[in-house]
Design brief:
The chain is α/β, with parallel strands linked by helices. Helix content is 32%, strand content 16%. Helix 8 links the parallel strand 10 and strand 11.
């Protein structure tokens, strides 16, 4: 067991982040002691040699009247630590490590950087716990006013984007630095063993393209195929699909890609999660299908019978509405009960990735959900929370840990391919997705991927999807 001595300020925040990093992620048992001090000190139980690790404490030194204000945000541009000088064996995305919060060690220390040997152990000038708290809780999103047309905090307003590390799981890298220090002082320590995994999910915004479509909309869609997508063959296929569906063969629908999605997942020993909508709160942005429709119920039974997951995709206006969130999840559970669908855990993702800290997490927790998987930026894929591990969430306003877990989303196909977002061409898009996947694999993390069932009508998406899922 390790004893962690911390200053006697921000106790709920410190307990949360130290428990998350030390116990949840590294698997080390700890005992937390609060006392009058200005840094964090870690020692091993029955410390006969007196060896200690001291860690800089910066964020949690913020005066209470400046907490959750822009004054407490990291100062930009961030300093860069060239870790190759002091810990070259640590596995990082790059040896040039941005320092979110920290204090450079004094000029007479080893290499004048962020790690120094001391008479009784090591001093780490990187404020690992404060920096991790900043990223995991989405601290900056509660202090910055920036929002896009859908009231979302945009990637371009984030520290990670502005400082060039959105495509790095920066907190995973910080954890490796922490582990390096701990292992160097106490070689007998062992960490939790993790295995890389792919976590694939599908927001069912539009389960069918033709099943609920009349002639006027069919004409508009076919016109879009010809004019916008420049594909006469797609228009012909859409018309033929519409005719087949109207005769009762709903699996011929353009958007009915579910069987093939499950086939590919099973070929790769994966379990897909399908997140369904149960309400329409905005006719402009919600596809208005009924979860009570026989086609939808049959689809849900088939998903469950093939041992894939069903979850909730709350409608456009729910992200700040606890009552509506709860009602939509209740409707999903009601239908699942009627269809004999039982699951141990329930989760999902907000429609349009609309999310507000900490309200949306609180809504999900109060509704009784187990996990959320919303947290990626719509306008840019990457590590919004700086981590590729699932983690317990913390309510910044109520200052408490919630039973809910966040399963941070790394890639949404629309973010990478969408014309209004990154708009990367095919091979470049594939390369970017595979790079993010490799970075998750580097830290034995979770590569969390969203691919909409309705996206596969676009040319080349099946091939790209299969390539991304390859082991």
């Amino acid at each position: 067991m390790l004893i962690v001595h911390v200053p006697n300020t921000y106790i709920p925040e410190r307990k949360y982040i130290i428990q998350t990093l030390m116990h949840n992620f590294l698997g080390i048992n700890i005992h937390l002691l609060t006392e009058e001090r200005s840094d964090v000190l870690i020692e091993i139980n029955d410390n006969e040699t007196g060896t200690m690790l001291r860690i800089a404490d910066v964020l949690f030194q913020t005066p209470m009247n400046q907490w959750l204000t822009q004054t407490s945000l990291p100062k930009q541009p961030l300093p860069i630590w060239d870790t190759a000088k002091t810990c070259p064996d640590v596995s990082l995305g790059s040896s040039k490590l941005p320092i979110i919060y920290g204090n450079e060690v004094s000029s007479n220390s080893l290499n004048n950087d962020y790690l120094a040997e001391t008479p009784d152990g090591l001093y780490l000038g990187l404020d690992i716990f404060g920096s991790a708290f900043f990223m995991l809780t989405r601290y900056e999103e509660l202090t910055k006013p920036d929002r896009d047309q859908h009231d979302r905090f945009p990637a371009i307003a984030s520290l990670a984007y502005q400082e060039g590390f959105l495509d790095r799981p920066i907190i995973n890298e910080y954890i490796e630095i922490l582990w390096y220090c701990l292992k160097r002082l106490w070689p007998g320590l062992e960490r939790k063993q993790r295995a890389f995994k792919i976590v694939v999910s599908h927001d069912v915004d539009a389960p069918f393209a033709q099943a609920f479509t009349g002639v006027p909309r069919l004409i508009r869609n076919c016109g879009g195929d010809i004019i916008r997508r420049k594909s006469f063959s797609m228009a012909i296929n859409r018309f033929n699909s519409w005719q087949a569906v109207k005769k009762g063969n709903y699996k011929q629908d353009f958007n009915y890609t579910f069987d093939c999605i499950m086939d590919i997942s099973e070929q790769n020993n994966l379990r897909s999660a399908f997140y369904f909508k149960t309400a329409c709160t905005n006719k402009t942005f919600d596809d208005n299908y009924s979860i009570d429709h026989p086609y939808i119920r049959q689809l849900m039974r088939e998903i469950h019978n093939r041992e894939h997951e069903i979850g909730i995709h709350p409608s456009y206006e729910t992200y700040k509405n606890p009552e509506q969130t709860k009602a939509e999840f209740y409707k999903l559970q009601q239908v699942c009960d009627e269809e004999g669908i039982q699951q141990e855990f329930w989760g999902g993702r907000q429609h349009y990735l609309r999310w507000q800290v900490p309200i949306t997490w609180r809504n999900w927790n109060e509704a009784g959900l187990d996990y959320d998987s919303t947290l990626s930026y719509a306008d840019h894929a990457g590590f919004r929370c700086g981590i590729c591990y699932e983690f317990p969430v913390f309510d910044l306003e109520k200052r408490q840990v919630l039973p809910l877990h966040e399963r941070p989303l790394v890639v949404m196909e629309g973010s990478v391919l969408g014309e209004q977002y990154m708009n990367l061409p095919g091979q470049e898009a594939l390369g970017y997705m595979l790079m993010l996947k490799d970075r998750c694999q580097q830290f034995n993390g979770d590569f969390t991927l969203l691919w909409h069932n309705s996206s596969f009508a676009e040319p080349g998406q099946w091939e790209m999807y299969r390539e991304v899922l390859k082991g």
